[in-house]
Amino acid sequence: PLQIGSTAHLEPIAGEVAFVESFANVVATRTDEGLVMVDAGSPLHAQAIVTSIRSWTDAPLHTAVFTHGHVDHIYAVGHFEAEGHAARVLAHEALPRRFDRYTMTNGYNGVINQRQFQLPVPLFPGDYRYPDETYVDRLDVTVGGTEFSLRHDRGETDDHTWVWMPNEKVLCTGDLFIWA
Question: How far apart (Å, rounded) are the C-alpha atoms in residues 69 and 89?
């Protein structure tokens, strides 16, 4: 069963890049302008992700990239923004439509989660951090001198993004690759 309040473990992997192991993993990068995160965890794990990253850096969150709109990839952004710094969120153009569908089917999704994760009650969040900027096929951004190449792909979802960090030689696949 899903462990509520479970921990997140941070492991530095390449220069200023760290991997945060959680229910849905996060890749965090320190830059001269602030923190960049690829994915942001579930509502049940977001605080553990923030605590883990804060043990590594106190830089404000500058940018978050959502690899797709599943709710286990989007929630730590709100915790970072509560520290007083607005972040920029990037995602594929189809992601806002997914959030709109989730709003319409919230109760149904709660029942599915209850069955899938053996929860005692239906559970599905309803507060989504919509992206500030979307893209169609590709988007190249630089934050604090660090390059991030976002590319659209279709895999587990139609709104998927994978991210290549060329200087660090780090590939962030989101759920295009999972351990299940």
Answer: 12
